[in-house]
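Workshop exercise sheet. Pairs work together: one partner reads the sequence aloud, the other fills in the structure field after running the prediction. Swap roles for the next sheet.
Pair: D.N. / O.F.
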Amino acid sequence: MYDFIARENGARVTIAEQYCKQILHKDCKARVDVNANVGIMEPRPFFGRIESLRGIGAMIVAAWHVSGWAINGVLLLPHQPWQQASALQNAIGRFELALLPGHAALMIFFVISGLVLRVSLQYGPQDFGRSALRFHIARIFRIYPVCMFAILIAALAHGWMIPSQPGHPAMPLDLSDFVANLLLLDVSLNGTLWAIQVEVVMAPFIVLLYFIETWQGPRALVAIAVITSFLSFSSRWTPWAPLSHNFFAFVLGMLIPTLGKTYVQQLSRFSTSRLLAGAVISLFLAGPLFGFFSRYSAFVEAYAATILVSILAYRIDLQGFWLLDTRPFRLLGVSSGSYYVLHMSLLVWIVPLVAMVTPAALNVEVPALTGPVVIAIVLGVLSAAAILSYLVVEAPGIALGRRIMSSRRLRLA
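Structure field:
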């Protein structure tokens, strides 16, 4: 591994590392000029605001799912019109629902993954074999421990039954189905994990795309991004529809450290602010205009997410984002993986408990007020559970993967 070689080159690396940690407050990865055999320390960029954005995205997805639950026979938000509520209440409720662009948040996740995974490859070994090995080990230990924990929670929450789905009644959970869910070969216990399946399937493609970029330059990725963007309207260009529809979002994210960075850094603050506002508005309006699950919505959302993530990652000079720099949102971002994989299963327990203390009359008479309050309470409980899961399950799994990668045998493989 490159940082192992660089650490053998003496005090210059040590001084650079101390500078990064003390001045930049960032961990450093060593880069090596193979021809000169000289270790060069560069701070691996840490995108704090992007991490916070990922946490906000996880909350938005969870809020959208919570909004479809009914308390005292009334939906928290009007996915279907509230029958006993006034036209004004329904209008307010529809506006509140529009403030939860769940699918847009999912596209942001995919774009962010493209960005951070491409950067991780850049600061790792630059030969294909070692890079692919280390990358996949890291992905396995980041994804599978917390997902296996989430599957266990889902099985308990549903009473060891596979929950009913449209056209499929609930049925007992047998061992083969349970193991298939643990391995993410099946998501019948928690349907939202299809997005994690996409992340897993994309891992080898991201490695391949990175080395295509190092060989042919960013223009090759631009061509792939454009082609897969148009192919996303078809579900058959890959053997699996979710991969066909979402492949392009990861490629767009991989373009951010090069073209995205260059583009946003050359803009004035005024132009950047206008572009950012347009991206945010597009993320909120795409679903209502084109349909929540429309491929046109996904197309617009992915490109708007690319603009948003590029600006938040590489224009830290912009003011007005202090909230993303606060510790609570950073902590929420760190635990966003746990938040996403656990929220659907935990709702089975949390929502009935909240319903017990929610007055029925209040829920029926002013649903436009009650719904957001209940959703906020549920999100708060989910946040605490996600942070606990991160500390107990997710972080130890990530640390185990890092220990395996730092072993001398693997570094020299």
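Discussion prompt: The longest helix spans residues 367-405. What would you look at next?
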